[in-house]
Amino acid sequence: MIGLQNVTVNNLNIEYFQLTMYCLPPVLQCCAVLQGMRIVHDPKDFDSLLESCKSESKAAFGDDKVLVEKFVDTPRHVEVQVFADKEGNTIHLFERDCSVQRRHQKIIEEAPAPGLRPDVRERICTAAVKAAKAVGYVGA
Description:
Elements: E1 7-9, H1 16-19, E2 26-30, E3 37-39, H2 46-61, E4 66-70, E5 78-84, E6 90-97, E7 101-102, E8 105-106, H3 118-134
Antiparallel strand pairs: 1-4, 2-3, 2-4, 5-6, 7-8
């Protein structure tokens, strides 16, 4: 999720206006629960949605942490396949678009990603290789 500012909300006393520094409208997500997403369209709904999300997270995982990030209305899910060996050789096998989903699960992977500008394709593939090298990734 390049470029997104994420914050973990551990305290119900957070003010809605503080979130405007990060994202508007925000989406609240119970940690590790993809079905637990709640979009805050109206600031007056923030407290009740946050409480609901925290409660669901606590019940499912024993932890009431909530991830808050900017809601993207028409997102694209684009992945890059990276291979790296123990010798430090790292390559990418280009990108694929996994935007067709049902209940946050990929249904179709399309390669190359349709409509992706060549300069964007080059940037995300280069970033993927750089990230894999930075963490010492080995594998496919």
